[in-house]
Structure prediction request, 320 residues.
Amino acid sequence: MTINLKTLAVGAALTFSATGAFAAECIAPANPGGGWDFTCRQVGKLLFDLGLVDAPVQVTNMAGAGGGLAFATVVAERNDDANLIVAASSATTTRLAQGAYGESTADQVRFVGAIGADPGVIVVAADSPFQTLTDMVEAIKADPASVAFAGGSAAGGFDHMKPLQILKAAGFEDITAIKYIGVDGGADAITQTIGGFTQAMTGDMSEIVGFIQSGEVRVLAVLSEERVPGFEDIPTAIEQGYDVVAVNWRGFYVPKGISDDEFNAWAEKIQAVADSPEWTQVMADNGLAPFTKVGGDFQGWVDQVIAQTEELSREIGVIE
Prediction:
């Protein structure tokens, strides 16, 4: 896989290297549509509209290997390109932590900023006996087989990690005993839970808004640092005593070889977009919650998340 990525990266770099009259380029590591493309296009537009760059930002779609092709291209061919940013998310760091990009590692790039997030949630059916997150945690501690989680990612994926982090924070060590069923997307996961086939659903806020509004579910916790605007009645895991933040953040990395000044300049631009009323409106229109970390603060947070993901992935046997 590593050889293929490197070979493809050279070809991709030759194809996409010209930026013409554009001041900056944003690579979306997927086809048009979806989260990475959205991040490049929305933030790229605001960078220009707010006068933070001198010309429109070129968006390059570079699908392949779940983001691995774009990552390998940046590392191999664009390592010192100070005019390049690459859209990233929690999927990026999870895949890096689990070795899904071959021999690529997170320290081959620099994570420069997060700008909004889809918060993780732990959800039960409206008629569930669990009224609080602690009710569920205590039930699992007493009998791990009594609670099965449904999630839209495969075993070892981001949705699987959320309940594992909560149980670890609660002092429960045997996380391999926690039952998780991976299904095809968040809608299927919530249907499993409403139908009584699983006792809980682990997913993202955007996947369950309609079910909250219809009264079919109860959200035991949102896994963000603060309560989500518009859903202020849903408590965070943190305020219930579980120090867990699991958000599907949207943000960027930049090439490893750029200077600290160039890195900080991108961080300042991303912060300026995050602070703008225009971005606040974009988040509201697209169901994102505020989640801004830039520069060294974000890089340090990413390093911590990757280390934790590696540890959990080893414990459940996803990686050796």
